């Protein structure tokens, strides 16, 4: 048995290879004379595989840019990629990255189940960890009251909050009955509850006429659509987000559910290119979270990335790429801030402390890492239009909100915050 | 091998594993914990499969029961004594296994497999669906237990896992292994084997088939549950994936990999599966494919698993010598 | 009333889909006594391959209304994998059936990655092609013609298979083999060939089913693993190995699910397993199965 053998490090793309082969000049300390090693844990297979693949492109793009510009505080970045699966195996991969590959930082994680489990594990291992996604309300407070090493993404519920605000803004007075079809897990449950809480907050009277909870990945939604149609809601709120979303859209369209009903899809961005114009009408509220690829006022960085992504995948990116890019850039900003302050290579604790409050210009727009280790980013949602060059709808009117309007402040309870927050429409 | 030599080899291996903190990397020591947890679970599963001849496709349910009992005790009830958790999970497993066993052991072969699969998936959907009770997909938190009344909060998690917890689990594996050894060599175990070979004949000889099968079912459930308790501690969470049917498939995969015809096969299977999966995941993103290939090869070419290969190598060696 | 009929039709449609997944499982078990966990994988493979072929054919200038024959043909082409996998399974025919089950579990693991290798992690779909045949209905009841085709297709397959097994000489041989393998062999039937034929038939039922249904749905990586469980529920309720049972089981599950969705959506999944367990307790051989030991 060769248990003690140091395993070869997988590098991906040219970035990693270049980083591994280029001698790094000008840094005398031997310990720093190796590339910075960043471990990525992202889903590749199963239902969330498509999300992970998109995120990886954001990481690769960030690393190529960083390495081309001389690395992070002068050290090249090299990636070790592991697969996110169930909580148990994912935590074992985290241990492998930290103990065996001795990575300097871990990024990734999409599923909230894994993120909840991994938080305490990463804290206890003192592993600097930056999540792409998967921050739900449940259990966050009790499992990680004051994280030191773990940095989380914006709350998953941000998109539901924003979609609800847009519903109020655009459709107030135009609907009385609502229905929901949401994935049957914590994310779907919280989104649906948040939507109703916000309607109440803005004094909208409504009746819930149907609630559907298909299991994630249900690919035949005929009966669900028939049940929704039978309930005749004026408005439907749905946080479906995987392959089930295009299936739902097509089924609803062919069953005539769309006539006279308004729809809000806070997580439509995950499937935006699969929702074809033929069955996705105009006038729906679509959430694109922190990256809307076709933003008319997009910055040069986003345009460059969209082209890069399209060139590699023949597709258009969604927000997971932005989350991954943000994570990498937040790390870079933290390391460089700490390094500057100390004028020597900082410890993990110093980097983590320095990351608090750093500002990052991400693919989708400005963002910041809050002092309580939760990201703040810019969100995009709007109303669908067919007036574009694609075969899927884009946003006609784009609403932009910064997440300080959408997520609870540090230490607050989400549901209390919804009741009391001063939210501008 | 003579019994004496076997004993010597086993003692040697236990000593080798026990001294792992001296020679293995912390990562590999933490990997040995799930290996030992599965080892315990498989000892039980193999009583059912290898000895009683019943293939269950639902035993992940009992692993789940162990993990969720740990979660309920350590994070909901605040009872962190690991010994109490072990006892409670064994009781919980038995409470589930008795009625389920009563219903399932009336059948054998494929019907038994499908019935256990159905119960396993029922349990999985319960965990998934009863969100307010179980945490749904997010699962339930597992807090670090105290071992023999000793709180180890001063140790960091890795030091806890690679130190006291590792040794504790090894001790559990040895104890439960010895208990299982007694069980399979008892009249009960011999009857089970007789049942596997010829149920009618055994019945004729006065063996009450169902009662024996039920006993084997309950014992296997308890072992799986204890395996689940151990798995939950390093993960820190109990989640519904533990009870999904593919996890049951993996349990059988491991049993077969090690060799179900040998008492120690399942333990070897658990260790080799963990090592194999770790290496494959590091080597390729298509690790599932290669796991499938290994399983197919084992099924087709080496149905007695790694132990079978070892045994025939040893037989050839001793023949060559004499 | 219209609402009720819509929900009912939704249930029937789901039953048709389930029947297509379970039919292959049944015929293979009926004759070969092998429980094929990979039946869901065949179905998924058919779905993926169907999307690719039709997309390609449309690009090459195929008029959209002709997509259905191309889709079916793509499912039929996949028959080639049947004999290959049968060859693999042949090595364990004389072993305990646990080994056969495990070998098909190995196939499930392999197929997951094979599909990911070829199609990546993005779900694949055929846009709105399903609507080229339009809709039917009146008075608030309406459904795509294609859904009607899927329902009709399932019934046709059930009838043809039933007729083939009951009425034709070859069908009788198959049933005889299912009853008593040694006896049929002694009577001079080439059981080896029968195994190849039956397994390939089982495979094609899966791949054609997957291809057939995909326009209404999508192909995704986890569908194989998820569908097996539903297919299992169907055959357990209907009775292992019985074609009629597959039809009945699919109807029970499809309608149960529709009823749960309409009345109390929380019960959607649990209800299916509860029926399974109820059936297994009260009538362990299923509605149409032969009694087990």
Structural class of chain B: mainly alpha
Mean pLDDT of chain C: 89
How many E strands of chain C?
A: 2
Q: Can you count the beta strands of chain B?
A: 2
- Unreliable segments of chain B (pLDDT under 50, ≥5 consecutive)? none
Spatial arrangement of strands, main beta sheet of chain C = 1-2
Oligomer type: heterotrimer
Radius of gyration of chain B, CA atoms, in whole angstroms: 20 Å
CATH class of chain C: Mainly Alpha
The major β-sheet of chain B equals: 2 strands, antiparallel
Estimate the global geometry of chain B from the Cα principal axes.
globular
In the predicted model, the low-confidence regions of chain C spanning at least 5 consecutive residues are: none
Helix content of chain C: over 70%
Report the major sheet of chain C. 2 strands, antiparallel
Helix-strand category of chain C: mainly alpha
Tell me the strand percentage band of chain C: under 5%
Average per-residue pLDDT of chain B, rounded, comes to 90
Widest sheet, order of strands of chain B: 1-2
CATH topology of chain C: ABC transporter involved in vitamin B12 uptake, BtuC
Determine the N-to-C terminus distance of chain B. 14 Å
Distance between the termini of chain C: 46 Å
């Amino acid at each position: 048995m060769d248990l003690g053998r140091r395993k070869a490090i997988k590098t991906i793309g040219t970035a990693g290879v270049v980083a591994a082969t280029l001698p790094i000049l000008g840094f005398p300390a031997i310990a720093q004379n190796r590339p910075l090693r960043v471990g990525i844990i992202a889903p590749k297979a199963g239902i969330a595989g498509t999300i992970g693949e998109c995120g990886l492109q954001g990481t690769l793009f960030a690393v190529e840019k960083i390495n081309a510009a001389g690395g992070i505080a002068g050290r090249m970045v090299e990636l070790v990629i592991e697969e996110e699966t169930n909580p148990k195996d994912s935590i074992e991969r985290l241990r492998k990255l930290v103990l065996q590959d001795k990575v300097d930082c871990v990024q990734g994680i999409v599923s909230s189940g894994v993120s909840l489990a991994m938080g305490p594990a990463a804290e206890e291992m003192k592993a600097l960890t930056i999540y792409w996604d998967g921050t739900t309300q449940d259990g966050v407070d009790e499992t990680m009251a004051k994280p030191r090493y773990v940095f989380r993404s914006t709350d998953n519920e941000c998109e539901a909050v924003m979609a609800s605000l847009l519903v109020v803004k655009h459709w107030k007075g135009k609907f009385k009955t609502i229905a929901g079809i949401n994935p049957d897990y914590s994310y779907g449950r919280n989104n649906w509850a948040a939507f109703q809480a916000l309607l109440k907050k803005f004094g909208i009277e409504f009746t819930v006429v149907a609630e559907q909870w298909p299991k994630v990945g249900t690919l035949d939604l005929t009966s669900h659509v028939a049940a929704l149609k039978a309930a005749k809601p004026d408005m439907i709120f749905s946080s479906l987000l995987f392959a089930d979303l295009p299936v739902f859209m097509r089924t609803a369209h062919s069953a005539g559910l769309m006539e006279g009903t308004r729809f809000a899809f806070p997580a439509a961005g995950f499937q935006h290119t699969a929702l074809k114009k033929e069955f996705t009408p105009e006038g729906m509220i679509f959430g694109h979270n922190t990256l809307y690829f076709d933003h008319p006022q997009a910055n040069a960085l986003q345009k460059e990335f969209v082209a890069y992504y399209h060139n590699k995948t023949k597709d258009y990116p969604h927000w997971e790429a932005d989350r991954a890019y943000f994570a990498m850039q937040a790390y870079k900003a933290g390391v460089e801030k700490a390094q500057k302050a100390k004028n020597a290579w900082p410890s993990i604790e110093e980097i983590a402390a320095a990351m608090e409050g750093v500002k990052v210009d991400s693919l989708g727009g400005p963002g910041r890492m809050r002092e309580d280790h939760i990201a703040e980013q810019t969100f995009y949602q709007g109303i669908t239009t067919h007036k574009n060059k694609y075969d899927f709808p884009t946003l006609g009117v784009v609403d932009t909100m910064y997440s300080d309007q959408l997520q609870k402040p540090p230490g607050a309870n989400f549901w209390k915050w919804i009741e009391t927050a001063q939210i501008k429409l | 091998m003579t019994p004496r030599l076997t004993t010597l080899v086993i003692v040697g291996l236990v000593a080798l594993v026990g001294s792992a903190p001296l020679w293995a990397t912390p990562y590999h020591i933490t990997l040995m914990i799930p290996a030992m947890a599965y080892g315990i679970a498989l000892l039980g599963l193999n009583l059912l499969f290898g000895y009683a001849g019943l293939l269950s496709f639902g035993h992940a349910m009992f692993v789940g029961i162990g993990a969720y009992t740990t979660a309920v005790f350590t994070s909901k009830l605040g009872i962190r004594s690991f010994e109490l958790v072990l006892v409670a999970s064994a009781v919980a497993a038995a409470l589930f296994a008795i009625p389920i066993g009563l219903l399932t052991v009336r059948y054998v072969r494929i019907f038994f497999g499908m019935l256990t699969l159905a119960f396993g998936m029922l349990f999985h959907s319960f965990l998934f669906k009863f969100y307010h009770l179980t945490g749904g997909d997010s699962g339930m938190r597992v807090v670090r237990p105290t071992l023999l009344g000793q709180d180890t909060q001063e140790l960091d998690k890795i030091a806890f896992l690679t130190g006291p917890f590792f040794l504790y689990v090894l001790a559990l594996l040895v104890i439960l292994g010895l208990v299982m050894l007694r069980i399979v060599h008892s009249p009960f175990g011999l009857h089970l084997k007789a049942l596997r070979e010829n149920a009618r004949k055994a019945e004729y000889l006065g063996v009450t088939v169902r009662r024996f099968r039920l006993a084997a079912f309950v014992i296997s459930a308890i072992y799986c549950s204890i395996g689940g308790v151990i798995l939950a501690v390093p993960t820190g969470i109990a989640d519904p994936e533990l009870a999904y049917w593919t996890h049951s498939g993996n349990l059988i995969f491991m049993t077969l990999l090690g060799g179900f015809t040998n008492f120690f096969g399942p333990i070897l299977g658990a260790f080799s599966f963990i090592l194999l999966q770790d290496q494959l995941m590091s080597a390729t993103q298509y690790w599932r494919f290669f796991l499938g290939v290994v399983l197919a090869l084992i099924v087709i070419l080496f149905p007695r698993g790694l132990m079978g290969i070892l045994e025939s190598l040893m037989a050839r060696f001793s023949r060559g010598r004499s | 009333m219209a609402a009720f009929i819509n929900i009912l039709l939704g249930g029937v449609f789901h039953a048709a889909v389930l029947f297509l997944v379970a039919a292959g499982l049944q015929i293979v078990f009926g004759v070969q006594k092998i429980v094929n966990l990979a039946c869901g994988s065949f179905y998924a493979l058919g779905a993926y391959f169907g999307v690719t072929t039709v997309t390609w054919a449309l690009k090459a200038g195929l008029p959209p209304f002709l997509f259905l024959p191309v889709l079916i043909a793509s499912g039929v082409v996949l028959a080639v994998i049947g004999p290959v996998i049968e060859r693999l399974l042949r090595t364990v025919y004389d072993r305990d059936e646990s080994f056969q089950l495990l070998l098909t579990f190995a196939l499930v693991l392999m197929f997951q990655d094979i599909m990911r290798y070829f199609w990546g992690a993005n779900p694949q779909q055929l846009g709105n092609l399903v609507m080229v045949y339009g809709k039917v209905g009146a008075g608030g009841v309406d459904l795509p013609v294609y859904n009607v085709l899927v329902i009709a297709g399932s019934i046709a397959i059930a009838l043809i298979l039933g007729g083939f097994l009951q009425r034709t000489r070859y069908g009788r041989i198959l049933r005889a083999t299912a009853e008593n393998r040694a006896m049929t062999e002694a009577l001079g039937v080439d059981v080896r060939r029968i195994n190849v034929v039956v397994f390939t038939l089982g495979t094609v039922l899966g791949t054609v089913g997957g291809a057939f249904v995909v326009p209404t749905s999508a192909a995704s990586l986890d569908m194989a693993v998820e569908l097996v469980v539903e297919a299992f529920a169907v055959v357990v309720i209907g009775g292992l190995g019985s074609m009629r049972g597959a039809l009945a089981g699919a109807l029970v599950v499809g309608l149960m699910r529709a009823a749960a969705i309409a009345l109390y959506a929380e019960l959607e999944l649990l209800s299916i397993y509860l029926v399974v367990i109820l059936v297994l307790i009260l009538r362990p051989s299923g509605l149409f199965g032969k009694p087990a030991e």
